Amino acid sequence: MLFSKFVDTLEKLSSTSKRLEKTNIIAELFKKVPSELISKVTLLLTGRVFPSWDEHELGISDRLVIRAISLATGISQDEIEKLWKQLGDLGKVAEQCIGLKKQSTLFSEPLTVSKVFENLRKAALVEGEGAMDMKIKLIAELLTNATLREAKYVVRTVLGDLRIGIGEGILRDALVWACFDKKIGFSYDAAKNELVFQSDDGRQKYNEYVELVQRAYDLTNDFAVVAEKSFAGEDALKKTSVETGRPLKVMLFQKAKDIEDGFSIVGKPCACEYKYDGFRLQIHKKADKVWLYTRRLENVTKQFPDVVAVIKEHIKADDFILDAEVIGFDQKTGKWLPFQQISHRIKRKYDIAEMAKGIPVIVNVFDAVMVNGKILIDLPFSERRKLIENIVDEKKDKIGVAKQIITNSNDEVKQFYEEALSLGNEGIMMKNLNAPYKPGSRVGYGVKLKPVMETLDLVIVGAEWGEGKRANWLSSFVLACRDADGNLLTIGKMGTGIKEKSEEGISFEHLTNLLKPYIIEEKGREVKIKPAIVIEVSYEEIQKSPTYSSGFALRFPRFVRIREDKSVEEISTIDDIKKLFAEQR
Ligand code: AMP
Question: Is the pTM of this model over 0.85?
Answer without folding.
Answer: no
